[in-house]
Structure formats: structure tokens, C-alpha cells
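Please study the protein below:
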Amino acid sequence: MSNTTTTANGTARCGKLGQRVAYACGNLGQSAFYNALSTYFVVYVTSSLFAGVDKGVATKLIGIITGLVVVIRIAEIFIDPLLGNIIDNTTTKWGRFRPWQFLAGAISSVLIVLVYTGLFGLVNVNTTWFIVLFVITFVVLDVFYSLRDISYWGMIPALSSDSHERSTYTALGSFTGSIGYNGITVVVIPIVTYFSWVFTGKYVESQSGWTCFGIIVGLLGLLTAWTVAFGTKENESALRSKAQKNGNPIEAFKAIFQNDQLLWVALSYLLYAIANVATTGVLIFLFKFILDNQAAYSLTGVIALVAGLVMAPLYPILNKRIPRRYLYIGGMISMIAGYVMLGIFSDNIIMVFVALVLFYVPGTLIQMTAILSLTDSIEYGQLKNGKRNEAVTLSVRPMLDKIGGAMSNGIVGIIAVAAGMTGNATAADMTASNIHIFKICAFYIPLVLIILSLIVFLFKVKITEKMHDEIVKELEVKLANGEIEADDAQTVEAVEAVAVAETAGTAGTATPAGQPESR
């Protein structure tokens, strides 16, 4: 009997480890995909896509494309909760999320290759048709990328209802995500220039080089999405199996707007996301046009990569001793210091790298805290409103990233055109005005946004690990007794009061959250 038990436990541990590894692999390709789509696609547009077009026409087309990307991505923001609702209402024998990893991973991977080919060279044949077909292709690409992203992070509450176990999955995803996202920053220039040399005989950025880059990103995205699809299994806990049907798209939006903690976490993260991508999106211009050392840009990716590799596995360890609220605050303070240094010492490469360490190291702390707070708000919303919306709730994060990506695309396009940072321009062509515009967009405005993000988190975000544990306990009791109703609305203060009361050892006499004492 003991041997059988030992074997069963060992098999369970191996299965759990395998699932963790499979889940972690997913964000490796997904984050690389996102960086290629949100940052380097616009760099590709401004540098090589219109290389075969008249310069005057090319400038107009760059403005049109970057403007369209911003409009498209902002418009799709309102689609993400609907996509989350579709995922939440998916019922298959493979679960709710895995089918979307398989399907959306495949379609988005094919389409990113297509946009990096200039729609198979159509851009050099007919620019009008190119613009029309580009809009259609980019919209479909962004929708299926969102389906993959939402279903990926939406899996976390389906894998575990324990807050600390969720932090393990989040840490693993963030760890590999850091490798994927920052690894692209390290290899993008070498890949593009190498394949440009292979096809043109010159070490420059060419259409062929960017096409090969797109193919590599697409293949990586496909393989990692399918790893998640075939390597994970969703659990049916009491919280999930007894949850009500997720309803129609209108109820999906209601689930978001009725969850006050979700909204406050989202606002804080949104301010951070816009600041973060606005800066990272134009760092290549800092090295190319201000420091006049584009080769050193790859070190930016190395710093970010090492920071992610160290901080992602360290996060669960730190979180056992330090509440994630304080990890978030510490990360924000570090970023503020980094921004101040970047603004003052933008022409000193040594100080720039010191500032980038302060900028990149806390990124994992901030992002993981936000993701975990959003994830824990699922049970908060279920207790507050009587509805459990997993994918809809977690669709908020990619929706926020999409806003940030749209802002990044817009900023890159504006700087590239307004400061003359397009085509064959060099650092010698930059004026004091050009550099001033760059610093305002890349450092000063993002600094203000980071400060605002910190203020919102400090004064409005109340959901903590302890509070979440008490919410889960109360939910399990209420669901077992059939007490949860859709109109049983409660406030964060009421839920928090129960957590405080039970922590003080008065759980047996405390009034249940949201219920008057007369009951």
C-alpha cells in the first residue's frame, strides 16, 4: 500500500511539474510575439517596409500605417471583453482555454509572417490595395493574438484556486515571458542584419531580413502555443463547477464595471503599461540617434533579460516574506529613479545603462503583482456579484497592454516622422529640438504616468493575499449552502472587514460580508 501511495505521489508530482513546464513555455513565444508586434513592427515600417517607394510617398504611408495601427488597436480594446466572454462560454472535452491556444496560436503565427513580408511584396506593387488589405490582416491578427493571450492568462484560475500556487504559475509565465520579450530585443538587429546580408550582400536592415525575423517569431509562437494546448489540463474545482453560466456579452461588460477592485488595479496597471511601452518602444532611437551607438542597443535586451531571469523566480520567494503590495511600491520607486536619470543623462551611455537597470529590474515585480491582483479579483467579483468570469476578467490585462501598445506605436511613428528619424537619417542630422521632443515623449511624460500609477495603487487597490484567502473560504461556504445570488452585491470594505475579523480570531461571531446583522 505504501509503495502504491509513493508511486502515485511521484506520478502526481511529475504530472504537476510537466504541466508547469508546458504552461511556462507558452509565454516564451507569446511575449516574443507581442514585442515583435507592438514594438518592432513599427520600427520595420519606418525603416524598411517602404524602402522601394518614393521618399515623399513613403513618409505619408508611414504616417498612415502608424495612425491606422493606433486606431485599430484602440478600437479592438472594446472587443477584448467580448473575446473573453467567448472563451468563458467555450465548452469542449479539452476544456475552456486549451482549444484557443491551439487555434489562435496557429492563425496569429501565420498572419504575423504575412505582415512582415509586406503582404508578399504587395506594398511595392500597389500601395492602395496594400493599405486596404493590411487593415483587414492586422485586425484579424490582433484578434487571434488576443484570443491566445486571454486564454493563456485565463488558465491560471483554472489550474488552481490557491493564491500562492497561482503566483507560481504567474512567476513561471513571467520568467519565460521575460526571456521571450527581452530575448527579441537582444537578437532582432543581429537576425535582421544577418539575413539581409544573406539575401542582399549588405549588413543593413532590408525587407528580406525583416521577413526572416517574422518567420522566426511566427514559428516560435506556434510551437509554444501548442505546447500549452497539449501539455496542460484544467481542473474543475468547486468554485468553477458551481459557478453560474457566464451569460451574454452585455453581462461580460457588466462583470468588469461592477468589480471595483478589478477597475482600480486595471487603472494602475494601464498607467504603468503606457509609460513602460512608450519608453521601450523608442529606446532603439536613443542609441541610434542620440548616443550614436546602435550596436550597444542589444545590451538593453541583455539587461532586461537578466533582470527578468533573476526577478521572476525570485518573486514567489520574496512574496512569502513581503506582501506583494510592498513589492509593487518598491518597483515603482526604482522606475521613478530610472526615469529621472534617463532624462538627465540621456547623452551619457554609462549612466544610461545604470538607469536602465533601475528601469528594468522592477518590471517583473510590478507586472506579476498586477496580474495576481487581477486574477484574485475573479473570486472577489464572484462573491460581490454572484458571477464568476475568468477569461472576461483576465481579458482586461491584454486589453490594457493593447492600449499601451497602441500608444507605443503612435509615439514611435510621431518621433520617427517629426524628428526625422526615418530612412537613412543619422545622429549627425539630429537637432536640439529633435532631442528635446524625444526626451519629452520617452522619459518625461512616462515619468508622470508612473507616479500616477503609484498613487492609484496606494490609495485604491485593497485586495491582498490575506483578503483573497478569506474570500475563497467564504465563497466555498456560500456555494455549498446555495447562498450566492446575482443580486447579492457586496463592497470591498465589507469583504475586507470579514478578513480582518477572521484574522483576529472572531470568525465565528463576525457578521458575513455584505449581510446585515438582522439576518
